[in-house]
Amino acid sequence: MRMKNYINGQSVSHSQASIEVLNPADGTVVDTVCRSGVEDVQAAVEAASSAFESWKQRPMQERVSLQKKLAAAMRKHSAAIGRQLSLELGRPLTACVHEINRSAELLDYYAEEALRMKGYFPLTNVAGEKVLVTREPIGVVVAITPFNYPITLLTFKMGAALVMGCTLVAKPSEDTPLSTLALVACFEEAGYPAGVFNVITGYGHEIGDALVSHPGVAKIAFTGGTSTGAHIAGVAARTHKRVTLELGGQSPAILCEDADLDIAVPAIVKHGFANTGQFCYRVNRVYVHKSLYPAFCEKMQAATNKLTLGLGIEDTCDLGPMINEKIYANAYGQIEDAQSKGAGILTGGKRRTAGIYDKGFFLEPTLISDATPEMKIMREETFGPVIGIAAFDDLEEAVQEANASVYGLAAYIFSANIGTGLRIAEQLQAGSVWVNNIQRSYHSVPFGGMKQSGIGREKGIHGLEEYTELKTIYLNY
Ligand code: NAD
């Protein structure tokens, strides 16, 4: 049965057209969703606009307590939502369930941080005058999300927007919309008023402009490709909408002469191949001091060879299929490009096809050695399980190479000398830099990109502020 949009607290679709959501492991249809048109956009924005007036007036404590109920409902249903996500995305099941639970944690964090939001008044010391600086919710937010972490990346936006008093229209990726639709039951269980949270499914190129240019929308919060982000920012600028953009990445790691390979290798393997490399701030390229290069390559090869490729839903593998042919072809094309320019393949390099692999895009985790700056693997976003490795002689030159990118999402530096690590971290042009360990990220700190990796920050108190407008009130009495 076709899944409908969720508009004003109802499952309803105006368009009769459908999109089949495929399991990327075998091409079977998991479900069908509405291929929305402009009427659906209109209805969703209208619902969010009319809900906004009363939602923004609800006491913060009430919005906080609803958000905590929503988080609790997500935890309760995390196994079912995680399964839906695994089926549509192809990622191993346990990691999908983890995504739902971790998103619930972020909802809780945002709710607690919202209670600490403050305005202020300066001590002007003028009799009969006070100046109040306060914050107001920005209005209706459109959240447009990509396929790779659909619930995490929606929660980055939704958790901040709703608790600060905005209402929301979510437009998930056409590849993975089912997990977002599965959240509807959690909103109903938590008891949210109709129209505060709406979901419409469909193709970005068909309904994106109608959503972004709609006069009833105040802000676009987007995560996705850099070129899509540029288009959205251009359309949003015509009506001076606020935007937060989380875009592409091509994140470098640098291993200094004194780096500990036992720390660096497992971290890079884990981070470079997570979600089958379909991960925005994955390690895409590695610059290794020439004295460590042979040992690093050998250890990387051994660790990568242990990774298994399989059907995500069976949960017995490290990597699953890639989401679609376009994403696969981009990554595979970078392997061919590197080979044609003289690189070596330490491991992987092939698409698996026989047996269980026959119906999906399964690309082996791949290490490219002797990579050079003119190779795509060192310049363009890969978004697949391929890592480029190059040796360097001079650390300052390695930093220059690392920064020679239009992207600036994340960077990694490994050195036994914390002074070196910090000095290089300060020089790297990236929104987040990890020194020596690629730990998991924290909800309480900002995340976002420099240069063409984005505008604005999500998470932390900054993430909440992005859904408010400052207002100054001059009070005379
Ligand atoms: P995409 O840009 O193709 O699509 C993302 C979303 O935008 C989808 O919902 C799509 O329907 C919508 N869209 C497409 N055209 C649109 C238009 N004209 N107007 C409005 N919406 C439109 O990206 P994708 O292939 O789903 O995801 C991969 C990309 O996302 C990669 O480039 C990756 O780096 C990026 N990403 C970035 C981050 C981050 O935090 N910086 C996180 C995850 C993914």
Q: Would you write up a description of this structure?
A:
The mean pLDDT is 97. The protein has 14 helices and 24 strands. It is 39% helix and 22% strand. 53% of the residues are buried. With 477 residues, it is of the alpha/beta class. It has helices at 38-55, 60-76, 78-89, 93-114, 150-163, 178-190, 204-213, 226-237, 261-273, 293-305, 325-340, 395-403, 418-427, 460-465, and strands at 2-3, 6-7, 10-11, 18-22, 29-34, 129-137, 140-144, 167-171, 197-199, 219-223, 242-246, 251-255, 283-289, 344-347, 351-352, 362-363, 366-369, 386-392, 407-408, 410-414, 432-435, 450-451, 454-455, 468-476. β8 (167-171), α6 and β9 (197-199) form a beta-alpha-beta unit. α2 runs antiparallel to α4 (93-114). It binds nicotinamide-adenine-dinucleotide. The site of nicotinamide-adenine-dinucleotide has 31 residues, from α7 and α8.
List the helices and strands and how they pair.
Elements: E1 2-3, E2 6-7, E3 10-11, E4 18-22, E5 29-34, H1 38-55, H2 60-76, H3 78-89, H4 93-114, E6 129-137, E7 140-144, H5 150-163, E8 167-171, H6 178-190, E9 197-199, H7 204-213, E10 219-223, H8 226-237, E11 242-246, E12 251-255, H9 261-273, E13 283-289, H10 293-305, H11 325-340, E14 344-347, E15 351-352, E16 362-363, E17 366-369, E18 386-392, H12 395-403, E19 407-408, E20 410-414, H13 418-427, E21 432-435, E22 450-451, E23 454-455, H14 460-465, E24 468-476
Helix pairs in contact: 2-4, 2-6, 3-4, 3-6, 4-5, 9-10
The structure holds nicotinamide-adenine-dinucleotide.
Give the strand content. Answer: 15-25%
Which CATH class of the largest domain is shown? Alpha Beta
Counting helices, strands and paired strands, the structural category is alpha/beta
Largest sheet strand order: 14-17-18-13-12-20-21
CATH homologous superfamily descriptor of the largest domain? Aldehyde Dehydrogenase, Chain A, domain 1
